[in-house]
Design a protein that fits this description.
The structure holds 2 protein chains of 2 kinds.
Chain A lengths: L4 H28 L7 H19 L2 H25 L4 H20 L25 H5 L4 H19 L1 H11 L1 H6 L4 H27 L12 H11 L4 H23 L7 H20 L1 H7 L15
Helix pairs in contact in A: 1-6, 1-9, 1-10, 1-11, 2-3, 2-4, 2-9, 2-10, 3-4, 3-9, 6-7, 6-11, 10-11, 10-12, 11-12
Chain B lengths: L1 H26 L1 H14 L9 E4 L9 H16 L4 E3 L6 H12 L4 E4 L5 H10 L4 E5 L24 E6 L2 H14 L4 E6 L4 H17 L4 E6 L6 H13 L4 E4 L5 H8 L3 E3 L13 E3 L1 E3 L2 H12 L7 E4 L6 E3 L8 H16 L9 E2 L5 E3 L7 H5 L8 E2 L5
Parallel strand pairs in B: 1-2, 1-3, 3-4, 4-5, 5-12, 6-7, 6-8, 7-16, 8-9, 9-10
Antiparallel strand pairs in B: 11-13, 14-15
The chains are: A mainly alpha, B alpha/beta.
Chain lengths: ~300, ~400
């Protein structure tokens, strides 16, 4: 059973899903606080190349991951400053961050464009567990960051819906005036979660680089995963555990064109297959940009709106 | 995608070129260039008047296409005792032209450009600097004519100080197929393929015929990524093939993604471009590789001697432009001896990868027993041979 292509492919999908889970969780925390950060793709690219440079220079994957997280936080910090402190239009600020992050990645990565990754994250070994039917390839045989992403998703769910800080976070995204009236600082909460979101997105970008990619290549490394992650948050209705299932599903569709080729299934042209995840993303982005449909999907009610106390 | 576009055009152009006017030019350069090397060497030329520059599409660290060119340039530097100016990561188009123009203005009188998209900019600069000598890798001069959408009215208007160079990788592909055929216990081999164009198809076919020469029932399952350099997508394609049960992977793209995927699953791997066994030592079997050094050295010597070679150079294993990488530890001595024997036959001309009989996927004979296809047939190849699983249309 473990040699069945579909079982093995599901295992591959779980691995591909790691970046999506981390980036989508990062976006989720940011959005739950009421800040819409569309710059995920730019943060992923910048953190990917920084983690590559750090890991390549030091030979340590941990340093690579740490630097990637820091760069993620730094870029998210720019977005936080623009949208919370300066109350800029968050959609414009987010798009600017995509352009800035891509440019920064291109600049930092230019000297190492095309260079292979030599310091890589290896899958953990589970011995006999890896031979279990179905569960072996799907559940076991991933690396530590993949498991961390899954644990984080569950922990995030508990944090959001079962703890007081989680309640405060949700309240900040839904009704910042009430949080403000309670004596809490909306700006501080939003900045904190935007930064934390940046760390998670940065971790996702670093993992993509150090575990999934064979070489640094600016034009191909993220392949639009940042946009897919944003769509995933919408499809998951801003709920962490649903993100995991959505991410595996997206991972599945990213892998599917090649599996169909390998299985000689040619009913659907592979070009159409490769388009599907992005088509779904497009639909989600349209929904996200329209306040009406956004509320219907369960978005935080104050998402994207700067908080100004005087206006209340 | 720009690279895809250009290679498709290149092959179309190479094929068309031969059909049209200058078949003689492009096909028979092997014979004419070899003696030149020794002739110039004997003069004990002083290379003080030679200023060489190379324009790279990537970085010398890529362990692939540009890395191989860098090795050739290093050989040129050490043999001639000169220093070569390198410009890395030069985008094709206007930036390339500005770069080459600046180099020519600085007095560089021999310039190599390592990507197809450098053709038009290089030809423009060559026309402005008749004192320099310009060499365009993977190029095809016919493409520069107005008939093909280029800037020169006829083939004769193309600057006489422009040459092109490329080679017959299919010979090394066949030999690497032998190693793969021997290594595959299941007889199921996978091929992470780039774009469905003749160059790639020819490589897959030659590889398959090599594998079948030692493992008659071997199949080669093809997965198209439609990329030249996308480590993530290529890894996904490689994993799908491994999921489907192949135990050896070959590839065409410029990354080591397929090798890393094979290594992680305990499968074997045939690389391409460079000898990068250290990327995945356990998986490594061998790889068709390029050796640009001798061409660079002989061209530089010719230019120092006062001639600018301007032919369309098509190298091979015989002249050493196409080579086979080192063998991995799992390739046993018998297999290595067999490959050496075939290589000798290829070099002395008694054997070529597509010697008939060859049948296509449907079993239809495409090369009759005892016959050898013309170079132009190879350059336009659009069918898969028997045993390849997949569609040559992508």
């Amino acid at each position: 059973m473990n040699s069945n292509i579909w079982v093995l492919m599901t295992g591959d999908s779980v691995a591909i899903a790691t970046t999506l889970v981390l980036a989508a969780l990062g976006a989720l925390f940011t959005e739950r606080s009421g800040v819409l950060n569309l710059g995920v793709e730019g943060i992923l690219l910048s953190s990917a190349v920084s983690s590559f440079l750090a890991a390549d220079a030091s030979g340590s994957i941990w340093l690579g991951l740490a630097v990637g997280c820091l760069v993620g936080a730094a870029l998210a910090g720019i977005h936080g400053a623009l949208s919370v402190v300066f109350r800029a239009n968050q959609i414009v600020a987010g798009l600017a961050l995509v352009i800035f992050g891509t440019g920064l990645a291109n600049f930092l990565g230019k000297p190492v464009e095309g260079k292979p990754v030599t310091t890589t994250i290896k899958p953990l070994s589970f011995g006999a567990l890896s031979d279990m039917p179905l569960l072996g390839p799907v559940v076991f045989g991933h690396d530590v960051v993949t498991y961390l992403a899954l644990v984080l998703a569950v922990a995030s769910s508990i944090y959001l819906f079962r703890t007081r800080p989680g309640l405060e976070l949700r309240a900040t995204g839904d009704d910042p005036a009430t949080v403000d009236a309670q004596g809490l600082s909306v700006a501080s909460i939003r900045i904190r979660y935007t930064l934390f979101g940046g760390v998670l997105i940065g971790l996702g970008g670093s993992w993509l680089m150090l575990a999934q990619s064979a070489a640094w290549h600016q034009a191909a490394t993220t392949n639009g995963l940042g946009w897919i992650a944003l769509a995933l948050v919408v499809f998951a209705g801003w709920r962490p555990v649903r993100i995991v299932f959505g991410a595996v599903l997206f991972g599945f569709t990213l892998q599917l064109p090649f599996t169909l080729q390998a299985e000689q299934i040619t009913v659907i042209p592979s070009a159409v297959m490769q388009m599907l995840p992005y088509l779904a993303t497009l639909v989600a982005m349209i929904a996200l940009s329209r306040p009406g449909s956004r509320n219907l999907l369960g978005a935080p009610r104050a998402l994207g709106q700067p908080f100004v106390r005087d206006e209340r | 995608m720009r690279k895809a576009h250009k290679r498709v055009l290149a092959l179309a152009a190479v094929a068309a070129m031969g059909l049209a006017a200058c078949g003689g030019d492009s096909a028979s350069t092997e014979d004419t260039t070899a003696p030149e090397e020794t002739a110039v060497e004997e003069t004990g030329a002083d290379y003080g008047n030679l200023k060489v520059a190379v324009v790279y599409i990537g970085v010398p660290d890529d362990k692939g296409w540009t890395y191989q060119h860098e090795q050739g340039i290093l050989q040129l530097e050490s043999e001639l005792g000169i220093e070569v100016k390198r410009v890395e990561n030069v985008p094709e188009g206007d930036e390339a032209e500005a770069t080459m123009e600046a180099l020519a203005a600085e007095g560089y009188n021999l310039m190599f450009a390592t990507s197809f998209g450098y053709g038009t900019p290089m030809a423009r600069v060559a026309a402005k600097h008749p004192e320099g000598c310009f060499q365009w890798a993977t190029g095809a001069k016919f493409l520069l004519t107005s008939e093909m959408g280029g800037e020169f009215a006829t083939f004769d208007d193309i600057p006489a100080n422009l040459g092109t160079y490329f080679g017959a990788a299919e010979e090394a592909r066949y030999l690497s197929g032998i190693a793969a055929g021997k290594a595959s216990a299941s007889g199921k081999i996978g091929y992470v393929a780039a774009f469905p164009i003749p160059e790639v198809i020819r490589g897959i076919n030659a590889f398959t015929l090599g594998a079948q020469s030692v493992n008659p029932d071997a199949t080669v399952q093809v997965s198209w990524t439609k990329t030249w350099f996308d480590p993530t997508v290529e890894k996904e394609a490689a994993e799908s093939l491994l999921d489907a049960g192949v135990d050896v992977l070959a590839q065409h793209q410029d990354t080591t993604a397929a090798g890393l995927a094979a290594d992680a699953r305990g499968a074997k791997w045939v690389g391409y471009n460079s000898d990068v066994s250290e990327a995945a030592p356990n998986a490594w079997l061998t790889a068709p590789t390029w050796n640009w050094g001798p061409f660079y050295v002989q061209t530089a010597k010719a230019v120092a001697g006062g001639t600018c070679p301007n032919e369309e150079y098509y190298g091979s294993m015989a002249d050493g432009m196409v080579t086979l990488g080192s063998f991995g530890s799992s390739v046993d001595a018998d297999t290595q001896a067999l490959i050496a024997e075939k290589q000798a036959a290829i070099i002395d001309g008694s054997f070529a990868p597509f010697d008939g009989p060859v049948s296509d996927q449907d079993g239809k004979e495409v090369v009759a027993a005892g016959s050898r296809p013309e170079l132009l047939d190879l350059l336009g190849m659009s069918y898969f041979v028997k045993g390849v699983i997949g569609s040559p249309q992508g």
